[in-house]
Amino acid sequence: MSILEDLLAKVVEQGKDAGQKAKDTADVIALNAEIGSAQSRMRELYREIGELVASDAFADYDKETLKKLLEEESALSERTITVQSWHRLYRLIMFLRSEEELVAMNTQKISRIRGEGVCPECGTPVSENTKFCPNCGTRIVRGEPEQETVQPQTVEVPVEASYSGDSDGEPEADETTGEETQE
Asked: Are 77 and 146 contained in the same domain?
């Protein structure tokens, strides 16, 4: 009877392992989907930030003037950018940072599920037998498993300021101080 009990115990244990692996796989798939969505939102935010800077800071420059500025390196190093819509720019960057934190946290969760470590220099997931980071080349020192966790920052966002992707109804900001002005 002992052989049957041992066999049954092994089958039960393997069933538990298979169930945990299936759960881990489902969790990784969900986290990767969330990362993909966040990266898509980040691309859209970068595009909007670029449009805002290009339209506000360089609206008065024609192609020839921009070409001259590029040729004069000293003019570029001393150039300050004036953005008319500071409130919108700050808001877009705040949302961008939030998405970056989400990607970092989910990447760390995936690493923990897979039993991977994280490069202390760049944060790239590395397998347990990796000696050097494949991304930055930093030597991976093994000791006690320590993983730095990214703590999300709490940012209060008024409901009317939530990211919607459109720029209508934005308060204007003073060019020099960046403070909102009333019209």
From this structure: no
Q: Which residue range forms the structural domain that includes residue 142?
A: 116-153
In the three-class reduction of DSSP (H, G, I as helix; E, B as strand; rest coil), residue 118 is classed as strand
12 with 56, same domain: the answer is yes
Closest CA to 114 of 28, 20, 181: 28
The verdict on residue 71 lying in a domain is yes
Statement to judge: residues 66 and 82 lie in one domain? yes
* Domains of the chain: total: 2
Query: 180 and 172 in contact (C-beta within 8 Å)?
Result: yes
Instruction: Summarize pLDDT for 63-105 with one digit per residue, the tens.
Output: 888 888 777 766 656 666 777 788 888 999 999 999 999 998 9
Here the tokens at position 91 are: 């808001």
Q: What is the pTM of this model?
A: 0.57
pLDDT in tens, 12-45: 888 888 888 899 999 999 999 999 999 999 999 9
Amino acid occupying residue 61: Y
In the chain, which residue ranges form alpha helices assigned H by DSSP?
2-57, 63-71, 73-77, 86-114
127 inside domain:
yes
DSSP letter at 117 equals E
Q: Mark whether 73 and 124 lie in a shared domain.
A: no
What is the rounded distance in angstroms from the CA atom of residue 152 to the CA atom of residue 132? Answer: 28
